[in-house]
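agent> fetching stored inputs for the uridine-5'-diphosphate docking request
agent> found them:
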Amino acid sequence: MKRILVTGAAGFLGSHLCDRFIKDGYHVIGMDNLITGRLKNIEHLFGLEHFEFYHHDVSKFIHVPGNLDYILHFASPASPIDYLKIPIQTLKVGSLGVHNCLGLAKAKGARVLIASTSEVYGDPTVHPQTEEYWGNVNPVGPRGVYDEAKRFQEAITMAYHNFHGVETRIIRIFNTYGPRMRLNDGRVLPAFIGQALRGEDLTIFGDGSQTRSFCYVDDLVEGIVRLLHSDYVYPVNIGNPSEITISEFAEEIIKLTGTNQKVVYRELPTDDPKQRRPDITKAQTLLNWEPKIDRAEGLKRTYAFFKTLSKEELMETDHYNFDKYIIK
Ligand code: UDP
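agent> prediction call returned; pasting tokens
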């Protein structure tokens, strides 16, 4: 039985990865410090013989007994509000955390896949974004702590591959959504759905003309599995190229939820990328991968999840305070 370590196991993506590798017959070791992850996302796995959980911060030395075949490094805050709340932890997990994962991979002879992000492209001047584009990132802006940590993460991963011969894979993840997103992480989808469910107006930042391309989580997980088992060591974009403005997206959420609320406009956060769409030619040709679940279907499934949240969970918006966290 293959053994796989998933860091960030209690997070949105990490928990779906644990599910997938349990389903595929692996022994899964989840690790999380639970700063942004939640045990609720993985509690259904706790009774299983082939699931273990370590409550541990991967920015500190990682000890895992026994052999390991694979490591997936998915621990990181991953929303602009979180980077502003916990900037040092964001930098540490993308630098010290990845260093520990690479060291562990080297010691165990494991293959390691690192979660990178479209944020390495910054506010892109090339559209759609290909893996060859080097990006337009502000290192000292509010997103710098995330963007630069992820860029460092890619560099150290390539160095461990080139210098130590560690088997490495790098995925650049574009906006992904689905069940188990944290309602109060500030990302646009949980923000809009939460607002609709609470009977609040939907907050569009800026004039809403900025674009994003949203990928359903099951498609992303399939891309990760294929990349892990491929022999390609350079970064690969995984995302859904179907691009939409944030205004159009708000309209879709209003229709989906049937809310009577309207949209209201707030200031655009600093360095908010104007447009984002993955060029997925590499994933298509190297991995024979492309997304299968369109937005209509994905949003339906995601809304079904958010509707199951309790009233208390729905009202838990305390640290989600735009005025406090948006840096002018
Ligand atoms: N956004 C918005 N209203 C919100 C939350 C986000 O208009 O309540 C915008 C945000 O400014 C950005 C887009 O939606 O242009 C996507 O934001 P998100 O934080 O989800 O992801 P990212 O900017 O990292 O792609």
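agent> quick read of the result: The chain is about 40% helix and 15% strand.
agent> awaiting further instructions
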